[in-house]
Structure formats: C-alpha cells, structure tokens
Design goal:
Blueprint: E1 8-14, H1 30-40, E2 46-49, E3 59-61, H2 63-71, E4 76-82, H3 87-103, H4 108-119, H5 132-145, H6 162-166, E5 173-175, H7 179-189, H8 207-211, H9 215-226, H10 247-257, E6 263-266, H11 273-280, E7 284-289, H12 292-300, E8 313-316, H13 319-325, E9 332-337, H14 359-376, E10 377-387, H15 401-412, E11 415-423, H16 427-440, E12 447-455, H17 458-465, E13 502-507, H18 509-512, E14 515-516, H19 521-528, E15 544-545, H20 551-556, E16 561-562, E17 565-566, H21 594-598, E18 601-603, E19 608-611, E20 627-628, H22 629-632, H23 634-641, H24 643-654, E21 660-665, H25 666-684
Parallel strand pairs: 2-4, 5-11, 6-7, 6-9, 7-8, 9-10, 13-19
Antiparallel strand pairs: 1-4, 2-3, 10-12, 11-12, 13-21, 14-20, 15-17, 16-17, 18-19
Length: 685
C-alpha cells in the first residue's frame, strides 16, 4: 500500500510568520550552520505547522536553520506548510525527522572522494561540515578496513607514512584525486604557471573543420575523453580552460627519478610546466619544441623563478635532429616528456609537426625521436613518458599508442621498468560517461599511463638518483616550493627527524576587516554581557576548551575540566563575575585559557586563519565603534603570532593589504587545532 502524502503547500514567508518549536529537543550546531549559510546560501526549506490556532507557524523541521537565518539578518524563509492530524502527529513528525539523521550512515569511500574533490576547490571544505581531520580520519579508516593501518608492514614502527616519506605513496596507482595532491597542485598553479600559453592560438583548421562548424567542439570533447593530462582550469587568464601539465606529477618524477642538479631532456616540450618545476626543484632542463612561438611563450615564464633557480632552456627545432645536436655535455640524467597523441590535437601546418602526419608516419618519426633521446641519456638512468591511448579515425578501436611507446623505447635500448596509472578527477568525464557508454559502450577514460624505462642497470640508476628528497607530505606548508628538505642522518629511522618549530599560515584579509565593537569593560557591562563566553548549542551553556597543559592551573582555582572542556556552573563560566559586570575573573592572570584569548579566530579547512563564524552572530558584530577584527581582537593576534608578527599584520591590513602569510609556533598551531577538535568531539557526542 502506498504511503499517504500529507497535504502541504510551499511559500516564501516573512520570518515573522514562523516560530521555533518550543519543545524541540534537538541541539543543532549553529556555528556550522552559520558557516554553511555563508558559504552555500540558504537551501531547501523548513517544515511548519499549518493548523490554525496556537500551533500555527511552529517549525517542525529545520528549527536551527531557521534560527541561524534570523540571527544572520534573514527576513524571508522558504516554507513547506503541512497540516498534521493532531498534536501527537506533529510531535511524531518532529521526532522522526531528528531520528532519521541520527540513524543515517555514510558510504565511506564515496564520502572520502567527495571531500577530496571539495578540498581541491578554492573554497576547500568550508561550509561542508567536514574538516581535513575528518578526511584524514576517514582515509585511515578505509586503509584499516582494507588491511592497512598505522602499524602495518609498510610502517611497522608507526612512523611517517609512505605519503609523508615520498610525497605520494610509491604505488602503481598515482591518485591525483587525493586532497594532498590537489592541495599541492594549487600551490604550484598559484605561482602563475601558464602551460597553455602559446598553444591554443596555434591550433589550425583544415577543410573538414571549416565545412563542419561543430567539428572543433567534438574534437575537444574527444580530446578531453582521452585526457592527455588532466585539464586544469586556469583562472583569470586569456586562455582559461586550456590544458596544464600536472605539476605534481612533474615534481614526483623529478624527486624520484632525477638527482638534484641533474639534467632533464624533454624532446616534446610543449608548455612551460616541466621546465619551471625542474628549475624550482634544482634540476637543469632542456626542452625542444618545433614551434618557435611556443618556445617564446615558455621563456616568458622564467620570471616566475627565484634568484637561485637555474633557468630552464628551451630551443626551437625538429627533435629528430635537434636532440642529437643539443649541447647536453655528458648526457641527460632523465628523459621526461608527454608526447603528442598522433593527430588528436593538431598544432600547425608544418609538415615536420607529428600532429599533421598519418599514424604510420607518426609512429616512424616518434620512434626516431625516442631513439635519439635514449641515445643522449647517460647509462644507468631513467626515462619517463606520460601517455594515453588514442582511437582510430571515426572513434574506433584503440591504436595501442601505449604499446608502441614501449616498443620504441625497448628498440632504443631502454627497458620498461615501471608502469603506473595516474587516476584523474572524474567530474568532467562523469557528465559524458552515460552518453558515451549508451551510444558506443566506450568507457570514460579517467587515467593516464606513466611509463618508466631504465637504460642500463636499475640498481645503479637508483643509486645515481640518490635518496628521495623532500619526504614531507605534499600539503605541508612548512616546505616552500623548491626548498631542499632537511637532511636526515639516518634514512632508516625517519621517525627521529625534528618536527618543524614554526608553522606558516595564510591570513584572510576579508576576515580581518570584519568590524566589531571590541571588548571594553563598558561594552561588556552595558551591552553584550560577554555572550562570547556562552554557547547556545551546548547543554551546559558554555563550551570553553582547556588545553591539557592548562588543566592543573584551572583545577587549582576550583574549576572542573572534563574531556578538555571547562564545566559550567548554572550555565555560566565558573570564573565569570556576577551580572551586571559579567567580566572574566581570570583576565590579566597567567591562567586565562589559551582558547578564551584566541577564541575569535580559527583555522578553516584550508588552513587559513579566519574569524570564527559564531562571532558574526554576536551583538558586538558590526556594532559600537566598528573596529576591524585586527584591532578589536589584537590581544588574540598577539597570542597567536607573537607581538612582532601581529604588529606586522596590523600594519599590513591597515595599509590596505590583501591576504598574507604569517608564522606561529608549532605549539600554537597544534593548540588551535586541538581546541577546535575538542569542541567538535563534544558536539558530536
């Protein structure tokens, strides 16, 4: 029997026409709801009682979303009006909705993938209700359920993970969807890498393209499906949306397969990324491209390098002869390239351009260039090519370009040593997968082949590369791009390495310019009553975190600490003086908790220092003298960054500066993170 559908109607109502339900037992996380409202806007609707009489307008579903909307200044709210049978029916609707979220669970792998994709965006995890700690914990659970863990065979002493030691785990699956990969990619792209410059304007058109106006659109769709490398969206540029070689893959290849100071030979240079990354990581680079326009565009990117970086060299020429003629001294220490995919993308009308040739001629020319490159590679060295297969004309069978690449290298004297698959973000492919599969049974291609060859003895080639440098996690902001990782005296005991003593974080200019009344005695006494010390979402009325290092001093003063939280007395902080003063009894003492002083600020999911969302719900927000946050909460900045760094930040923002970076001690960083984790754990319990 089909369940009945209640009578209901939709309307956008004034918030004055609704009321929070007086008996709602649910306690929502208003801080998160405010963050979500700011990041995502108000979506969905609330469910309200449409019966006439005293219950009319009672919110049955969405009480805390409604409350947060009102506190944020909302004047209208989307409402679904329902007519319960009676009071008992209304009560059951409210209880059932609350229980449904309690009983829900997640498909962990899918959740981890969604969070990793969200983290890779400019907004990071803001507004999702999840944090990087959530994601890392989820991934740890997945690893454990799959037989791994902190104390498995790969990490018997519980020390650094494979990702922490080698940048990404050295498996045959290189997962570019992971949050740490995408974070590092953003750091590289923030340098201003523009690999697409010099490419798009040189794509040419033949008679078939002119006759068929939508040919190029279909060609680009086919090109993205084959995915020569992940198509990254480069913002704020004249060619936004064209391809950028993945700089994280580039970084890993250099760190793993080329010694510092070694020479990289790239016979199909294309854009600038491989050259710029090589220079930033202390490798010499020589790239060859047929098109002088591309070489000129690449050279413009040299301005991205620092004073100590040796500029990459690009030369224009046909690699069939230019590789042999190039000045490589004793030879290259690594051959690294991403070759053209036959005629999938045509770059010019030059008959020497491989993209203009039929596939048989393309294979012959391609093999000739591979042979020339391997000949210039020093003995006992590696070569890495990033390739993907291409289909025959008309969208037919694959041409086996990957196999033909292996064949060309082995004929040239370099054996296939590793074959990795780089898994790409699936978002763009997913929009085409159903149509592609229904129409042709073709699978959406979401990977690339990373082929690693060795010329000579693999063991000697490994020795020539030296120890893998920069074994810090790719997302670790303490290691600047191109900075050499600290040397370890004992490669077998990496857990003995000293952790960084300071952490560099981004500080949001927009947040620092939010305006507040400040915390004067008069304002606290006469206006706000120190509501920042209270928490409407906490059963005890407060949520004041006490770091473990502070607990003894707080308890010596008569306070009680449970699970890292100060226990309230009569729903008030036990150290808060009686009304009307409402002042902190620990103010100006060495025992005032770190969490209280630092409270206005927090680190968001992307590691940026921002104003805590709940502070925008307080009376002091945009009230009184309306001081910018960097002045209103100067004592907090002094505590977090130290007086000298705080003074620099204040001067920077007062002078109109934008987002900037500042350093805090590792201990302070850990306290900020731990205090927030304590509160999240309390809300979840």
């Amino acid at each position: 029997m089909s369940p009945r559908i209640l009578s209901q109607r939709y309307a956008v109502e004034s918030v004055e026409n609704l009321r929070e339900h007086p008996r709602n037992a649910r306690r929502g996380d208003e801080e998160f709801l405010a963050e979500s409202l700011e990041a995502n806007g108000f979506f969905g609707s609330v469910l309200a009682d449409d019966r006439p009489g005293p219950t009319h307008g009672h919110v049955l579903v969405g009480n805390h979303r409604f409350r947060t909307l009102r506190r944020q200044g909302g004047v209208e709210v989307p409402v679904i009006w329902v007519t319960p049978d009676d009071d008992d029916h209304a009560r059951r609707i409210m209880l059932a909705d609350n229980a449904s979220s309690d009983r829900a669970s997640y498909e962990r792998t899918l959740l981890a993938e969604l969070l990793a994709e969200a983290k890779a965006t400019p907004s990071g995890l803001a507004g999702t209700g999840h944090t990087e700690a959530t994601l890392e914990g989820l991934l740890a659970e997945i690893r454990t359920s799959n037989g791994g863990g902190a104390n498995d065979e790969e990490n018997p002493k519980g020390g650094p993970t494979l990702a922490e030691r080698f940048g990404v785990p050295p498996f045959s699956i290189l997962d570019a969807r992971q949050g740490y990969w995408q974070q590092r990619k953003r750091e590289w792209l923030d340098l201003g890498l523009r690999s697409e410059i010099g490419r798009a304007e040189m794509l040419t058109y033949d008679k078939r393209q002119i006759a068929e106006i939508d040919f190029y659109k279909r060609k680009r769709a086919r090109e993205r499906a084959a995915n020569p490398l992940e198509r990254s969206k480069v913002k704020d540029g004249p060619l936004a949306g064209t391809s950028v070689f993945d700089p994280v893959l580039c970084e890993m290849v250099y760190r793993w397969f080329c010694p510092r100071g070694g020479l990289v030979l790239d016979p199909f240079a294309g854009g600038s990324v491989r050259g710029i990354v090589a220079a930033k990581l202390g490798r010499r680079y020589l790239g060859i491209d047929l098109r002088a326009e591309q070489v000129a565009a690449n050279r413009e990117q040299v301005s991205l390098l620092g004073e100590g970086d040796e500029p990459p060299v690009w030369i224009a020429g046909d690699s069939r002869t230019a590789v042999t003629a190039a000045d490589l001294g004793d030879g290259a220490d690594l051959v690294f390239s991403c070759p053209p995919y036959a005629d999938l993308e045509r770059y010019s009308d030059d008959p020497a351009d491989l993209s203009t040739m039929d596939y048989a001629d393309f294979r012959a020319a391609y093999a000739e260039i591979v042979a020339a490159a391997v000949a210039r590679l020093r003995p006992n060295r590696f070569a890495v090519f990033v390739v993907g297969d291409v289909r025959e004309p008309g969208g037919g069978a694959y041409r086996n370009f990957v196999g033909h690449t292996v064949e060309a290298f082995e004929k040239a004297g370099a054996r296939l040593y590793n074959d990795a698959v780089m898994v790409l973000m699936i978002a763009s492919v997913s929009t085409r997968a159903a149509r592609l599969f229904n129409g042709s049974r073709k699978l959406g291609r979401v990977h690339q082949n990373v082929l690693i060859f060795c010329k000579g003895d693999p063991k000697k080639a490994t020795e020539a590369c030296g120890a893998v440098e920069g074994g810090l996690h790719l997302g670790d902001e303490t290691l600047a791009l191109g900075e050499e990782a600290p040397a370890s005296d004992d490669e077998e005991e990496p857990e003995d390495e000293e952790p960084p003593s300071r952490r560099r974080v981004k500080v949001s200019a927009a947040m620092m310019r939010l305006r507040f009344a400040g915390c004067s005695v008069e304002y606290i006494r006469d206006v706000c009553g120190a509501r920042c010390c209270e928490s409407s979402s906490a059963p005890g009325g407060t949520m004041i975190s006490i770091h473990r290092s502070e607990q003894a001093a707080i308890e010596a003063r008569g306070g009680k600490v449970v699970a890292g939280l100060l226990q309230s007395v009569g729903k008030r902080c036990p150290f808060k003086t009686p009304a009307p003063a409402n002042l902190c009894g620990l103010h100006a003492t060495p025992d005032k908790p770190f969490g209280c002083i630092a409270s206005p600020f927090t680190l968001n999911a992307s590691g940026t220092l921002i104003v805590r969302n709940r502070y925008k719900l307080l009376k002091c927000y945009d009230d009184g003298p309306k001081l910018p946050a960097y002045e209103a909460f100067r004592a907090s900045l002094d505590l977090i960054f130290g007086a000298e760094q705080a003074a620099r930040l204040v001067a920077h923002f007062a002078g109109g500066g934008g987002d900037t970076h500042a350093e805090m001690t590792a201990e302070t960083f850990d306290r900020l993170v731990e205090n927030d984790e304590t509160k999240r754990a309390a809300k979840a319990s």
